[in-house]
Design a protein that fits this description.
The complex is a heterodimer.
Chain A: H1 11-23, H2 28-40, H3 44-59, H4 70-78, H5 86-90, H6 92-101, H7 105-111, H8 114-133, H9 148-201, H10 207-214, H11 222-227, H12 247-253
Chain B: H1 4-15, H2 19-41, H3 44-61, H4 72-91, H5 113-116, H6 124-127, H7 131-142, H8 146-157, H9 162-169, H10 173-198
Helix pairs in contact in B: 1-2, 2-3, 2-4, 3-4, 4-9, 7-10, 8-10, 9-10
Classes of the chains: A mainly alpha, B mainly alpha.
């Protein structure tokens, strides 16, 4: 440790004054003693350099930019209120409504959570389906409909109507299938009779002959055969049937 | 510096159920709380969550704020600091941090601090301009122990007085100054190592 001489600064004192020195609040003899110690001490001099460098790095760091919706999220999470807008704050009835709902803000804050909102939506959907099944329509709901006897009656009626509809549908389908099957039977019977009558009229040809007639692969094409025939008289294009008017025809005939 | 009377009136209005007053408080302090949280926790997501936690706690305990006991910002920063320490303990990010007192290992034994520091790389004034350098400083800050980190954040990033920091951290002013200086020096040492590795 340096600074053992009288009037000189020691390392402990130097370290204690380090912050003030960097803040620029030292002056006079204290500042001179501080600077002299920094120049002479092999530990405190580099320490001063390091601390000053670290401070410069930190001071140059910019302030972190918060997310854009942070204020809104904080307000929703705390007071449950949306960010106030000038247009809305001008209307007194909305202010009054906000005052009334202020105590319920934490409840609304919890409800506004997406997961809770989804569960609530599903529950509402289920209730609506049940009410429809029970024959209760919210638009035409009366106090009398909420009596247990009325609910029971509605349920029974809905059940009976649904059952009747299902039975009717089943019966209709059954009738159609029956008619179709009858028609099919009649058609089959008619075809069978026709076939029998046809067999009686035409005796059955031998199978090998029929095959021979059907098989034309080994024979020349009839069209080509017809083109090569010479026993028919040649008819020239553009010639008239009147042989007197055509000398070429006359010569051949002669 | 905050206007003590204006803030006291704002708090009073807020306690009376004035939603606009609370919104004003949130708008006035959210940036500062977020910045402290981001520099301490290291990630933007954690900082956002922590900032919300701070304001939720503020909202619930606003009645306990006593104007005569200190500035509102000190009270807010104390809440933030306590939550940050809790978060640090929860997240178990307790990393090995070497301080000035701990003996450097290996070849660094032969080097004094003075010999290491001239190789700091880019000068602080010029270098922090770039985003890469800012990121390096931010990462170096995360490598400090929580005690040193919170001290330098409050002093060098939030410009708080030693007395206020001592009040927030509940330690004597001398300890605050010592932690700040050690934190600064350690940060410079981490950065000098980083730039040595790069070059």
């Amino acid at each position: 440790m340096h600074g053992g001489h009288e009037g000189e600064m020691d390392c402990t004192r130097f370290e204690a004054l380090l912050s003030e020195a960097l803040d620029g609040t030292l002056s006079g003899r204290t500042l001179a003693g501080f600077q002299a110690h920094a120049a002479a001490c092999p530990d405190c001099g580099p320490m001063l350099v390091a601390v000053r460098a670290g401070m410069s790095w930190l001071k140059a760091l910019p302030e972190a930019e918060p997310p854009r919706n942070l204020v809104r999220n904080i307000l929703i999470a705390t007071s449950g209120a949306e960010v106030a807008r000038p247009a809305t704050s001008a209307s007194p009835w909305r202010d009054r409504l906000r005052e009334w709902t202020q105590p319920l803000a934490p409840v609304f804050s919890a409800i506004s959570h997406p997961r809770f909102a989804l569960s609530l939506g599903m529950a509402f959907f289920s209730v609506t389906v049940l009410l429809n099944a029970a024959g209760l329509h919210l638009t035409s709901l009366r106090t009398a409909d909420l009596r247990p006897s009325a609910i029971q009656e509605n349920l029974a009626r809905t059940y009976n109507e649904t059952t009747a509809r299902a039975v009717k549908y089943y019966e209709n389908i059954r009738l159609v299938y029956e008619i179709e099957s009858r028609v099919q039977e009649i058609r089959n019977a008619t075809r069978e009779e026709d076939r029998q009558e046809q067999r009686k009229k035409e005796p059955e040809k031998p199978r090998d002959r029929k095959y021979r007639d059907d098989n034309t692969s080994g024979r020349p094409d009839q069209k080509q055969e017809r083109y090569s025939r010479r026993d028919e008289p040649v008819v020239l294009a553009g010639s008239s049937l009147d042989s007197a008017a055509n000398p070429m025809c006359n010569r051949r005939d002669a | 510096m905050e206007d003590t009377q204006a803030v006291a009136a704002l708090v009073e209005r807020c306690l009376g159920g004035d939603a606009a007053a609370w919104e004003e408080i949130v708008r006035q302090y959210h940036r500062r709380i977020y910045s402290v949280s981001y520099r301490f926790a290291g990630s933007a997501e954690d900082a956002e969550d922590l900032t919300q936690e701070v304001f939720i706690k503020m909202y619930r305990t606003l009645k306990s704020y006593d104007v005569s006991k200190g500035a509102f910002i000190t009270w807010v920063t104390t809440i933030a600091r306590n939550l940050l320490v809790d978060h640090f303990r929860r997240s178990k990010h307790d990393r090995m941090t070497d301080s000035l007192e701990s003996a450097p290992s290996g070849d660094q034994d032969a080097l004094t601090l003075g010999e290491q520091l001239p190789d700091l790389g880019p000068s602080p004034d010029a270098g922090v301009q770039t985003q890469e350098t800012q990121r390096a400083v931010h990462h170096a800050l995360q490598r400090l122990s929580p005690e040193l980190r919170e001290a330098v954040i409050l002093r060098d990033l939030q410009d708080m007085e030693y007395r206020e920091i001592a009040q927030v951290l509940r330690v004597p002013e001398g300890t605050v100054k010592s932690r700040i200086n050690r934190g600064r020096a350690e940060l410079a040492r981490h950065l000098s190592r980083t730039y040595k590795q790069v070059s």
